[in-house]
C-alpha cells in the first residue's frame, strides 16, 4: 500500500516519500510540467544540505522511480497530496486512503467564514474573539452592513475623544503624531470652509488659525456615554449588533469628524472635558478589548471574502469609500456579498519603523476529537515602506510577498537594516526583541496568544468541517502583533505556499513538509518517533 500521488508544486513531498520506499502513481499531466521541479530545486538542495537527517532526497539516475511509477499506474494510491481539495472526489475515496485536505474548511479558512463563525466561539469555549480577531463584518448581509456603519460612527466618536486628549497633551498618542498644520495650511483651510457650513458654534477668531469645535467634543462624549451604557447591558445573543445611538445628526457629526481627522481642525477641551474624556475612555477600555489597537484614524481594511495573496485588499478611512467599493451604497447586491470589512490594527508592533506579519503553520490530524499541532518555527514578512497612517498605499500596509514584490525595486525608502528579500525567521525576530528589551515577549505573550487564537478559530467551526478520519491538513495562519505584543489573527489559509521566496522560506518550507510527514506517516507506526518542530497543543 505504499503508493502515493502528488498533484501540485511539491517536489519535497515526492522525494521524502520516495526515500521511505513509497512509489509514485503519477498523474497523467504531471510529466508535462517539468518547470515545477526546477522552480523548487532550492528546497531540495536545502533539505539535502541538512546534516544528521535520516530522510534525504532521492535521486533517480537509473530511472528506477519512473519505471516503478509505470508499473503502478493502475493501482490505488494510499497517500494523496494535492493543491486543492477539489482535485479529488472525496466521496469516492476508500477509508484507508490518506488525503491532505478536509472538506468544508471554508468555515474558518476564508475571510468570510472566519468572520461569520468566530462570533460563535463563546458557545463552544471560554474565549472572546475580540481579544485576538479584529472586529469584522460581512457587507453582503444587511444587518451586518448596518452594524458596520454604526461601528464606524462610534469609532469616530472615540477617536475624537482620543485626538482631543492628544491635543491637550495627554498620553493616549498612537504610533505617530499628526504634524501640526503650518500657518499657510491653516489659513487655506479657513478660506475653504465658510462659517455658514459649520453646524457647531465656534468663537470668531482673528488670523489664520485652525477652527475650534467645542460642541463637537460634547456630542462625542454623549455618543460614547450612550454606547458605554449599552455595552454594560449587552446580551450574548447580540454579540455583533451595535445599538444605534439616539439623537445624533450623523451627517453633521461625520462631516466635522472628517475635518478634525483629515483636515487639521483643532478640538478645544476645558479642564472638566479633559477629565471626562479620560474617565470615559478608561471605562470603555474595560468593555472594548480593541480600544487600544484601533488608534485614532478610524482606518478599516476591505477584503474580498474568498481571495488570497492580498488580492483586492484596500485600506481606507472613509465610510463612503468602503460602501462604494463594496457595491453597497444604494442597495444590497451580489457584489457586496463578496466583501468583508475589518478594523485595521492602527498601533502595530513595528521593526525599524516597518510593519510586518507572521506566517504560522499548524496541522490538524483529526476533527473528532480535535487534534492540533503547532509548528515552532515561523517567518516574518515585512512591508517595503515605513509604516504611516497618512499614506494607506499597499507598500506600507500589506505584508503579502505577492504584493511587496512589486515595490522592492524602488530605492531609498526601505530601512537599511531590513533584509533585501523582506523575510526574517522567528529566531531573527527573537534576537531583535532581545536587543530592544523584550526578550521574553515571544515565548510568554506572542506564541501563547497565537496558539489560543488557532484553537479558538478551529473550535468555533469544528461542527461545520467534514471530519474524515483518514485526512489531515496543513494550514498557514497570518498574525499581526500590537504594540503590546499581543497577536491578532488576520486569516487562515489552506495549502499555504511552499515556494522558496527567500533563503529563510526555502529552509523552513522544506522542514515543515518533512515534519508533516513525520506526524502523519511515521507516527502511525511509531508513536514515539520525533515530530520535528511540531508540538501537540490541543487534543479533546
Automatic annotation (TrEMBL):
A molecular function (GO) term: protein-glycine ligase activity, initiating
Segments of this protein annotated with the region Disordered: 33-54, 170-189
Predominant subcellular localization, coarse grouping: cytoplasm
One BP annotation, GO: cilium assembly
Keywords: ATP-binding, Cell projection, Cilium, Cytoplasm, Cytoskeleton, Flagellum, Ligase, Nucleotide-binding
GO cellular component labels: axoneme; microtubule cytoskeleton
Annotated catalysed reactions: L-glutamyl-[protein] + glycine + ATP = glycyl-L-glutamyl-[protein] + ADP + phosphate + H(+)
PROSITE patterns: TTL (PS51221)
InterPro entries: TTL/TTLL_fam, TTLL_monoglycylase
Protein name in UniProt: TTLL3 monoglycylase
Organism whose genome encodes this protein: Psilopogon haemacephalus
Organism ancestry: Eukaryota, Metazoa, Chordata, Craniata, Vertebrata
